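From the methods appendix. Each design record in this collection lists the tokenized structure first, followed by the designed amino acid sequence. Records were kept in a plain field format so they could be parsed without special tools. The example shown here is representative of the layout used throughout.

RECORD:
FOLD TOKENS (310 positions):
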């Protein structure tokens, strides 16, 4: 079961919501903030945090609509600007003086990309992204594959097949019925077994119905606008992409074909399925720590560096 007793603090967002935050490790060490995706909550980072907290101050929080955090009803409350502002509020609370290192998965990565390519860039020392591209980058990537070249068309077709569920998620109330009947959760359990590495063991999480239902708003609030009119979003934050080779939702090319948007990019293909933070936590922690070591520990007072704007 999801353990609410592990909550260390509550952070209030700009629109008055409460976010549940969990911390481990020495708070005087560099801070790593972990952002989970859909339909998970911050418990997906438990084993990764166990590895990283030996060297870092590790922060996990339930994003709005998930876990013990507040669950607003309206779609506008789930727009990327709101999600990035939530991340900023968490960073201000757990590391007010120093930049943090960001580690994110799935929709956690999508919203973190929005922050890294926007006004929060000066608050982030490094970013490790797993299975969640920037929506604007993804839209530009898909358009770039609309050319008469066999490889480009194959990559586009492969990703369109993987993304087929997104259209279904917009067909309310059908996805809600799928989750409420339990059939959707059984399908998800089966998908979790696909693409696993040889040493990767699937661990069935306790997925809560409210997380499944409220998280649908992430898709409905953000997808159409970003894909019909994508923005040009770039970043100077050092980025590492961990791309699972067996991911059934996000292809490796979609995650990694972003060098034109990122000044300093490192790509690591990793054997495993979509949920490698749970299936291979030691690997995720090791790559994250290496990336942090390369860019520096982030222990620089914010007053020593100019603030970047979006």
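DESIGN:
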């Amino acid at each position: 079961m999801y353990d609410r007793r592990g909550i260390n603090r509550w952070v209030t967002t700009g629109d008055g919501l409460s976010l549940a935050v969990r911390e481990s490790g020495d708070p005087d060490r560099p801070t790593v903030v972990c952002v989970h995706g859909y339909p998970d909550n911050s418990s997906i980072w438990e084993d990764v945090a166990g590895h990283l907290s030996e060297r870092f101050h590790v922060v996990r929080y339930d994003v709005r609509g998930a876990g013990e955090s507040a669950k607003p009803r309206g779609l506008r409350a789930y727009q990327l600007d709101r999600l990035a502002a939530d991340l900023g509020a968490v960073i201000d609370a757990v590391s007010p003086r120093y930049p943090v290192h960001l580690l994110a998965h799935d929709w956690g990565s999508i919203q973190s990309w929005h922050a890294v390519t926007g006004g929060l860039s000066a608050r982030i020392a490094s970013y490790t992204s797993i299975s969640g591209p920037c929506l604007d980058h993804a839209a530009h990537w898909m358009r770039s594959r609309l050319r008469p070249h066999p490889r480009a068309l194959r990559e586009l077709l492969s990703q369109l097949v993987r993304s087929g569920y997104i259209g279904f998620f917009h067909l309310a109330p059908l996805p809600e019925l799928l989750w409420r009947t339990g059939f959707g959760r059984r399908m998800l359990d089966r998908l979790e077994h696909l693409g696993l590495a040889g040493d990767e063991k699937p661990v069935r999480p306790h997925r809560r119905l409210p997380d499944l239902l409220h998280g649908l708003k992430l898709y409905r609030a953000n997808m159409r606008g970003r894909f019909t009119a994508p923005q040009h979003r770039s970043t100077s934050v050092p980025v590492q992409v961990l791309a699972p080779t067996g991911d059934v939702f996000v292809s490796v090319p979609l995650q990694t074909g972003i060098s034109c948007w990122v000044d300093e990019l490192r790509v690591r293909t990793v054997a495993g399925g979509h949920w490698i933070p749970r299936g291979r936590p030691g690997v995720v922690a090791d790559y994250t720590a290496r990336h942090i070591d390369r860019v520096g520990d982030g222990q620089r007072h914010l007053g020593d560096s100019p603030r970047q704007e979006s």
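APPENDIX NOTE: The longest strand covers residues 18-24.
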